[in-house]
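Here is this case:
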Amino acid sequence: MTDDGTPVQRPAAAPTTGSVPALRDLHALASAVARSAGEFLRGRRPVHVEVAATKSSPTDVVTEMDRDVEAFIRSQISAARPDDGFFGEEGKATTGTSGLTWVVDPIDGTVNYLYGIEAFAVSVAVVSGGNDPLTWTVLAGAVHDVAKSETWSAWLGGGAWHEEERVHVNAPRPLAESLVGTGFGYAAPRRLAQATVLVDVLPKVRDIRRIGSMALDLCQLSGGHLDLVYERGLQPWDHAAGGLVVTEAGGVVTGLRGRAADERMLVAGNEPGVRALVTLLESVDADLGA
């Protein structure tokens, strides 16, 4: 816990059922599948992307490519590890017999993809402990930045990596000197509430960045390109891989009011910075309301 009692997610000891070579194998598979899915995605983007469906609101879109990439990832993982479960953003979750589940976001940053903005990623993680993010342990994960053809990855106890370079979060600095990443929801009432919070946060930090992909936000944080990240309304596949990259890069990932990170709030970064940002977000009830 932090000094104020807030639980944080940190690198943990590898589970006794998974040796270091086994974790490295999972890491290698996650990285290979994420890269392959990125190549699949790069080679098939049409000039004009069409919306195939919407989810929580008319602005929460799904493209046919979201579904195609997830099906491609599922086939790759099933071929390599047929006994594992699968938990993707676009399809039905399945429970395997191995005790491991793959948590996948086929295109994190779908709206960027829709508009041709080159900031979207494939996120692939493998967890033990079932489909509940509050009880699972993320064992390995990879985030492939599709436009840059670069992969960020980590395995439990093995450090965080940008391609072949080990990465670390920035050293602590005052909140007023911290560059902070965030994102916004799709429903209008949620965006209004988040804008209200931003009015309180923006004057107290160096500046705000909105990339449009939490997976990439967490990787940029891990590589020192952001100091802190926060967002309300995230789903498990948004941060399963990226969260492990953060903790293996020496950072922490948490929620507010003594909770672990969940849909109500995720805060990530170096521990002193996270403590300061958590205090600020709690003071403006950033996890309450719409």
Q: What stands out?
A: Confidence is low (pLDDT under 50) at residues 1-18. The longest strand covers residues 100-108.
